[in-house]
Please model this.
Amino acid sequence: MQDSGRFADVDAVRRTMLDWRFYHDFRTDRLAPLRAPCLAVTTPTLSSDGSDLAAVFATLAHIRGDTVDLDRTIDDAFPGCRLVVPPPERTTTFGMIMPDYPKRIFEPGELSDGTLRYLALAGALLGYRLPAFIALNEPETSLHPELLDPLARLIVQAAQRTQVWVVTHSERLAAAFAACGEVKPRTVIKRNGETWIEGLKLFGEFGDEDE
Model:
């Protein structure tokens, strides 16, 4: 629907939704886009498949000139590790320095699935410009349990800049949200054969919101 003059309301909804990002899954196999260099273009927002992650990092490091939050997030999740973003040329990439190998840069193709997936989540949540709405579906997938608390802190930090919706099967992650973000997780249940959110009233409010 491109006729914005005739259908202004529909066009406004379309434009709003185009600014949303849904991060359902990030491929981490050998040929995954996350493991390959990408074109060196200014990229303030991570694409839904994460294929421009290196450009998101390069935008923060070499255009924005501010990686304070990103560096803090990396150290929170991987103590002693450091993200390296070389100056971009036609393409750009990134790597990590591990505390046990301080003179060696591990390229994306060498990183574990969990580490790479966490870096993709960091790119989605710490980009120079965040979308108006971010949906994360089971962000805990393939992550080591010890990464769930740092992940919760990362998501809560991003929620100060935009609206973040998280669907998770991890009780530990949900508990971490409650502990560090004053967030009340909601449980999805089956009620009379239909999917429902526990505590939700028919008029759209939760019974415990005034507690």
